Amino acid sequence: MRLPRRLLPMLLLLPAGARAQGRQMRPGAARLLGPARAQGALVWAHQHYLDGPPPDPPPFLDRLLGQGWDPWRLDRLAPAAPGQFGLDPLEAGAAALAAGTAALRLEGYRQVLVVGESRGAFITLVALRQAGLAEAVLLLAPAAHGSRPERRPQALAEFRAACAAAVPGAVRRAGLVLFQDDPYDPDPAARAAAFAEGMARCGAAALVIDRPPQPIGHGAAGDPEFDALFGARLAGFLAG
User: Fold this and answer.
1) 13, 127, 162, 165 — which has fewest CB within 10 A?
2) Which UniProt keywords apply (predicted)?
3) What is the spatial distance between Cα 141 and Cα 234, in angstroms, rounded to a whole number?
């Protein structure tokens, strides 16, 4: 079952301040199993976008939906114009994600998983400063600084800082997927090492898939080939 683009018109779970910033946790399907019946909540933190509905999650998450996980989506407003990244700040997104996962637990979900792609993945990484964020997170091609060469030092420094800031108890399992020919990745080898070190410091089991031969490119997680090659492994890692 794919998560549909047209979701329930329902604002839930986040405090009023987060809603005012344009962030909201929405159910990702018209019918949820609910906290009592579901395996847990699966939160999708989507990538940066400019118009239309928020981007769909990658196909491999269908595996978890089939196992009884309830889909939710952390919404973030699209900027009014290209390049206005300040309208989608990392710190605000991370705070909203932490508040949202905490609210899902208050609703009764026993387990929470978070999967983020591109900017959503970077936001999820920053949110690992919060103890009890989720049972597991998966970061797909984290990005938050564009692709210009002059921004690569900052992009790598902020990625390393976020890995180092992850706190014990934030997450039990954390995965990172990096792709070949990703123009938004400043240094894949350095990022893979920083992630592994950061997760070891905070006591999380880490899985790193570092530039597989196929598929390639920043959006490769959405390729059906990615599901065929890695979907079962990633779904199993997330669910534990």
Assistant:
1) 165
2) Signal
3) 14
Beta-sheet strands, E only, within the chain: 24-27, 40-45, 69-75, 112-117, 136-140, 173-178, 205-210
pLDDT at residue 47 in the model? 85
Neighbouring CB atoms inside 10 A of 128's CB total 27
- For the chain, the first-to-last Cα distance in angstroms comes to 21
Dihedral of the alpha carbons of 6, 12, 15, 16, in degrees to the nearest 10: 60
Instruction: Give residues with Cβ within 8 angstroms of 209, minimum separation 6.
Output: 175, 176, 177, 178, 230
Classify the C-alpha dihedral 39-142-100-76 as positive or negative: negative
Query: Which helix (H) or strand (E) covers residue 96, if one does?
Result: helix 90-106
Contact 176, 206 (CB under 8 A): yes
User: How crowded is residue 105: how many other Cβ atoms within 10 Å of its Cβ?
Assistant: 16
Q: Give CA–CA dist 210/229, Å, rounded.
A: 14
User: 100 CB contacts (<8 Å, ≥6 apart)?
Assistant: 13, 14, 18, 23, 25, 43, 72, 74
Q: What is the pTM of this model?
A: 0.86
Q: Which residues of the chain fall below pLDDT 50?
A: 1-24, 84-87
Distance CA 227, CA 220 (A): 10
CA 153 and chain centroid, separation: 23
Provide φ and ψ at 47, rounded to 5°: -80, 170
Rounded to 5 degrees, what are φ and ψ at 22? 90, 15
| Residues contacting residue 50 through CB under 8 Å, at least 6 positions apart | 78, 79, 82
